[in-house]
Design a protein that fits this description.
This protein is an alpha/beta fold. Helix content is about 45%, strand content about 15%. The chain has 2 domains: about 140 residues, Aspartate Aminotransferase, domain 1 (Alpha-Beta Complex), CATH 3.90.1150.10; about 270 residues, Aspartate Aminotransferase, domain 2 (3-Layer(aba) Sandwich), CATH 3.40.640. The protein binds pyridoxal-5'-phosphate (PLP).
Length: about 450
Amino acid sequence: MHLSNRTTEQWQKIDSAHHLHPFTDFKELINTGTRIIISGKGNYVTDSENNKILDMMAGLWCVNIGYGRKELAEVAFEQMQLLPYYNSFFKTATTPSIELSKILADITPEGIERFFYGSSGSESNDTVVRLVRRYWDILGKKNKKTFISRTFAYHGSTMASASLGGMQAMHNQGDLPLPGFVHAMPPYQYKFGKNINEDEFCKFAVNEIEKKIIEIGSDNVAAFIGEPIQGAGGVIVPPRDYWNLIQDLCKKYDILLCIDEVICGFGRTGEWFGSQHYNIKPDVITFAKGITSGYLPLSGVGIGKKISDVVIKQGGEFYHGYTYSGHPVACAVAIENIRIIKEERMIENTKKNIAPYLQKRMREFENHPLVGEVRGEGLLVGVELVKNKEKKEMFDPVGTVGNICRDHCMNNNLIMRAVRDGMMCSPPLTITKDDIDKCVERFKKSLDATLEDIKKLDI
Ligand SMILES: Cc1ncc(COP(=O)(O)O)c(C=O)c1O
């Protein structure tokens, strides 16, 4: 095997000397040392100290079919031997990228029919910015450039995708957003709609978007972009009518509707895509993560007739592309991944059995003194930890309690993610009722330990 046989301590030393980690406080990590993950099987990963950890985050919201599926490795091996790489520039293509496009046309939201590939969600969202601006440009509406997104949105970490995102901390560090990106309030009722009912809040949240459109002027707005359920922003689940109303707004003001399916795509909501869960028909979608279950990097943008009629029939060359657009090995792995999801009826099982069970069991935590709200849909859950349950008072400063709880989870062999002071889960679609029971048991222990720490530290 290509892996060297070192001790955990040796790996940690090399890691801290030579490796810069994403989204990491470098100094803190050097003090604490990295946890080194060695292998994965099903819904579990094993670290270099032989701890078997239940991965309720499916890696980073992506290992939809679980770890250790040999079929994906075999397909990659075969494709690498046949043709490890060729590009899709200059009037060439490879068979996996062609076949994958046909498969995607069948499963993506109605009307989406053509696909452009990248290697990450960030790249795909950058492509959307280029493509949508090109679309309006060809139509002679040169001022329609601005993208409206929402605070707490996460659309990636490149300059344009981080500008689309609504993460203040990222903006502060990168001189962002770039011009042409504005943000409105997300449908985060626990924070922004404490004393009103869901219908009232829905109208309020949609109205905030409409106000933004009017403020900028619809002649200057290119598109509205959003995740069906905001994932990394804290599993923000919109009111049921929200997306239909947003779709109407986009039609009313002649704005394109872009849906970021990077987390919600490939079964997470109990449908193939979040757009289908909310019954909307976007003009353009982006996807990544679950398309290969994270086994290889692959992402894409899907467009419908409205955009393709303009950019294909009326435009000349689109000066945009990546070396790895339509990478044959990644596309072959995606085809096999989708075959497994279909054949093992993972989406049907998510919708009928597993998601309702996960939602029901996690909602038991609503009675815990630290928990303000449990929200979620499909295999996405967010548990809001609060200072005062009755007053819906959040912790200040934000984030300390979430991190404490995440560390307790890890010590109890449970991976959940902390977002501000909320705890998220987004397990593989292969998660079982037994594993969900284990998650609930370990999370209860972790929450209780967090509550003790809060008392001790007087947070
Ligand atoms: C909704 C959403 N869009 C885009 C991205 C960016 O994807 P990547 O990290 O592959 O660039 C992410 C990553 O978590 C995401 O959650």
